[in-house]
Write a structure and sequence with these properties.
homodimer; about 300 residues; alpha/beta; Nucleotidyltransferase, domain 5; 2 domains; 5-stranded mixed β-sheet; 12 strands; globular
């Protein structure tokens, strides 16, 4: 059994992959996220032939959340209190494991992505802690510390960080239904669209919205740095791919730290410290593959 | 060799202890922090007789910072870029190890305190991640995740978190020389004294300053919760001992999370989630003892 299955379970689509490594991908598909029953059935249909051929050792899942990661809980492996219609308390792990009958690992989408970046990118080995941040429709932070993903009471929810919001500079109220102007409320794709009246990907490169966006991301990044002292921050997700944004974030983070963290990496090599994903847009699903490998 | 040495190296005093456990403390002393030479000499003088009698297996140090925790660095075990006069680039670990000639462990004061709370308090076992927050002359956050203290590029500097500051409500500019109104700039003892014109311990129990203080602490705690999902937050330090503050912080944290983190602990048992130290004011030095035990 030389292959592993990876599932990046997102609110819009499930990305499914069979692979031995990023260099040996056997099959890959994207399944639209409809009802839990249909989506999980189609996911299992994709992997099932590989199981029947005896080629699949294990499957890893990196899921949208909130999820239950407590292995002693009755709802371990469930998507829990999501606002997504029909998906509340969906037994995702169980739905895959009962059909495929092989070991299944489970974590959040962002922890899977963080683990994938650590596991597959040689230059990330020994960069611990490593944080993976996704900035797109939502904002999430995955953390690897002391060799493993960080879990606790529930799991990280980095998008909801409370950060300074100067309402004179930016009167936008914020978009988060729970906290209004938390990081996610100010800086996701939908927040940008709502503030500026058009989708983020249609904002011109020199639109002042990008400086404001970089400021909010950088404010949050200083908090990540103060609380983890990470060896590297990987910035992925749709919004973060906008041309020039990474460089703005690097510079603004350096400015906001204001020399407090006396590290050569931050003072002189910020371009190697805050980086785009080494795995491109596949950090999540290849992270799920890495999680599966840990089970075998 | 049944005993271990612990040093809580602070900017005002060094607390030194010889013990086997919190229930078997053999000797304890407090040495004022003067020059590095004098302070380290007096510290060594305290431990030396126990070493000569062959009773001391190892020493642990929890130090004020910034410190260098990178074991491959030339300045490992040094206090580095501190603003404290005379202490810049002081080889604290080396100064102890060269004289005592036994194994010496080294970490930050807050990581030592967090480790001490995990190691010695039975009900904290398996509460991982666990965060220890000190709120006093400064603010610091120590983190244990996946069984070990979190280190990275440098170490955590949780006091400098960027948090919302409503200048209409609180026109105080902030006290931090690097970031002005970061958490530490708004909520340390000296910030309170500067804002209200008298020392924090002289503010009446019903002074509105305590509600504001609880709000800033709670804002920062929501960020700790979003980034670590800790199993427990231990709140120590001089300011945090003010009567009623813990309860205000518990309530305000719950309010600010606003039901987003669906955990029984937060929704119904916040009084067991945010707690004062199980080791009282000795978390740091007993944590240093725990670090020493790990070496033996």
């Amino acid at each position: 059994m030389k292959y592993f299955g990876g599932i990046e379970a997102g609110g819009t689509k499930f990305v499914c992959m069979v692979a031995a490594s990023p260099d040996e991908i056997v099959a890959e598909t994207k399944i639209p996220t409809t009802t839990p029953e249909e989506t999980i059935k189609r996911t299992n249909d994709f992997f099932s032939p590989f199981v029947l051929k005896g080629e699949l050792a294990a499957v890893g899942i990196g899921s949208f959340g909130p999820v239950d990661l407590n292995q002693h809980s009755n709802t371990y492996g469930f998507i829990t209190t999501t606002p997504k219609p029909n998906w509340r308390f969906t037994d995702l792990l169980g739905g895959v494991q009962r059909r495929l009958q092989i070991p299944v690992g489970f974590d959040t989408d962002v922890n899977a992505a963080a683990f994938g970046e650590c596991y597959w990118i040689p230059e990330n080995k020994n960069l611990d802690p490593l944080l993976y941040v996704t900035i797109g429709t939502g904002i999430g932070v995955g953390a690897i510390a002391n060799g493993k993903p960080v879990h606790g009471l529930v799991h990280t929810e980095g998008g909801h960080l409370a950060i300074p919001h100067d309402k004179n500079e930016d009167p936008f109220e914020g978009y988060c239904p729970y906290h209004r102007d938390c990081w996610e409320g100010l800086a996701t794709g939908p927040a940008l669209a709502s503030r500026w009246g058009k989708p983020a990907n249609l904002l011109e490169d020199d639109h002042p919205g990008w400086d404001l966006e970089a400021k909010y991301i950088a404010l949050a990044f200083t908090n990540l740095i103060y609380l983890y002292s990470p060896m590297r921050i990987v910035m992925g997700g749709g919004v973060s791919q906008h041309k020039g944004l990474l460089q703005k974030v690097q510079l603004k983070t350096q400015q906001l730290l204001n020399g407090y963290v006396q590290s050569d990496m931050i003072l002189n090599h910020i371009d190697q410290y805050i980086v785009n994903p080494g795995l491109g847009t596949r950090s999540g699903v290849l992270g799920a593959i890495a999680i599966a490998r840990q089970l075998a």
